[in-house]
């Protein structure tokens, strides 16, 4: 109760993108079009990650996570509900994570952690024939 009074006195006009009375994390401003921003970032991420080999676990996981979050953004209108469904913090933090991932991809392409130091594939793709 004491904390609520302090927040209401110190920042009575702060409203995050989700409509919460709590301010966004320090240094992050509310985004008036958070869903649009996330969709643009997710589309750019999916396009950029195509430069990484298909056998890379990094690419597989980035694509899977990005597509999952993209679907949540498409299906959820309410930002507060979207924050709960994604479950990693306020929407401003989700946007920051998406920007960070997009900036990480060129570094990963440069370093190629999916290859051995001599440039050969760390885990060669093996073909498995299924028998009925």
TrEMBL record:
The keyword Methyltransferase belongs to this UniProt entry's keyword annotation: no
The organism's place on the tree of life at top rank: Eukaryota
Membrane topology of the entry: Peripheral membrane protein
InterPro entries xrefs: NDUFA5
Keywords attached to this entry: Electron transport, Membrane, Mitochondrion, Mitochondrion inner membrane, Respiratory chain, Transport
TM segment ranges: none
Classification via Pfam families: ETC_C1_NDUFA5
Compartmental location: Mitochondrion inner membrane
Keyword Mitochondrion among record annotations: yes
Name the UniProt record assigns to this protein: NADH dehydrogenase [ubiquinone] 1 alpha subcomplex subunit 5
A single GO BP: respiratory electron transport chain
Gene Ontology annotations for the cellular component aspect, listed alphabetically: mitochondrial inner membrane
Residues spanning the signal sequence: none
Protein family: Belongs to the complex I NDUFA5 subunit family.
Source species of the chain: Timspurckia oligopyrenoides
């Amino acid at each position: 109760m004491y904390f609520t009074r302090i927040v209401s006195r110190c920042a009575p006009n702060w409203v995050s993108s989700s409509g919460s009375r709590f301010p966004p994390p320090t240094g992050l401003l509310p985004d008036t079009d958070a869903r649009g921003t996330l969709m643009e970032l997710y589309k750019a991420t999916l396009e950029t990650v195509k430069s990484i080999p298909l056998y890379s676990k990094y690419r597989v996981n980035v694509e899977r996570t990005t597509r999952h979050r993209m679907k949540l953004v498409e299906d959820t209108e309410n930002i507060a509900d979207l924050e709960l469904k994604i479950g990693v913090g306020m929407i401003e933090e989700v946007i920051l994570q998406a920007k960070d991932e997009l900036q990480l991809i060129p570094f990963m392409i440069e370093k190629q952690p999916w290859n051995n130091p001599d440039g050969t594939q760390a885990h060669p793709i093996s073909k498995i024939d299924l028998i009925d």
